[in-house]
Each structure stands twice: as C-alpha cells, then as structure tokens.
C-alpha cells in the first residue's frame, strides 16, 4: 500500500501523514480538536518554528476556515516538549 502524503500548512513541506500532526474542524459542530474526528483537516510539522509561524500568521485558522482556540496551540506546544528527548548527562 502506498504511503499517504500531506503538506504542512506552515512550511508547505510534504511529508508522510504519520509524521505530521492533524488538526480537525469537526463537522457539523465546527469544534477544533487534535487527531480525531471527521471534517476539514490541516496538518502541521512537529517543530517549534512551524507552530510559531502558524500561530502568528493564523495559517491554521485560514486553512480550517474557523477560529483556532488558544488551547490547541498550548496542546501542540505540550506535545512538542514531550516529544523532545531529554539531554543525557555525561557520566
């Protein structure tokens, strides 16, 4: 089976669907949530630069055609900090 490719709304780079984070505007409630639900979707890289640029220039909001709550950006930031491995101390 061929891999599914998607484009980051911030840096416009193409990557596999599994390597990007999905933000969904759920139909018909128009609520915005991460990873699950059916409706209009946008994808973003898991990098600080992409999240920062998407927030400053409202790229997610324009792509999903709705207001993006601050909690979504906070949760993306939490995910980013959780995915970065801690530096190991030299023994």
Quick recap:
By secondary structure, this protein is α+β, with helices and mostly antiparallel strands. The protein has a single domain, classed as Hypothetical Cytosolic Protein, Chain: A (2-Layer Sandwich), CATH 3.30.1230.10.
Structural notes for this entry:
This protein is an alpha+beta fold. It has one domain (5-83): Hypothetical Cytosolic Protein, Chain: A (2-Layer Sandwich), CATH 3.30.1230.10. The protein is 32% helix and 23% strand. A hairpin with a 6-residue loop joins strand 1 and strand 2 (14-16). The mean pLDDT is 90.
Produce the secondary structure layout:
Elements: E1 5-7, E2 14-16, E3 21-26, E4 32-34, E5 39-44, H1 48-56, H2 59-64, H3 70-83
Antiparallel strand pairs: 1-2, 3-4, 3-5
Mean pLDDT: 90
N-to-C series of helices and strands? EEEEEHHH
Low-confidence stretches: none
Largest sheet composition? 3 strands, antiparallel
- N- and C-termini, Cα separation: 45 Å
CATH topology: Hypothetical Cytosolic Protein, Chain: A
Annotated CATH homologous superfamily: YlxR-like
Described by the principal axes of the CA atoms, the overall outline is globular
Strand content: 15-25%
The percent range for helix content is 25-40%
């Amino acid at each position: 089976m061929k891999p599914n490719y998607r484009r980051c709304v911030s840096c416009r780079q193409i990557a596999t669907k599994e390597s990007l984070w999905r933000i969904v505007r759920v139909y018909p409630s128009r609520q915005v949530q991460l990873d699950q639900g059916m409706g209009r979707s946008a994808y973003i890289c898991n990098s600080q630069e992409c999240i920062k640029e998407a927030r400053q220039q409202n790229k997610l909001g324009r792509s999903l055609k709705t207001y993006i709550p601050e909690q979504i950006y906070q949760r993306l930031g939490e995910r980013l900090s959780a995915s970065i491995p801690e530096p190991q101390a030299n023994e």
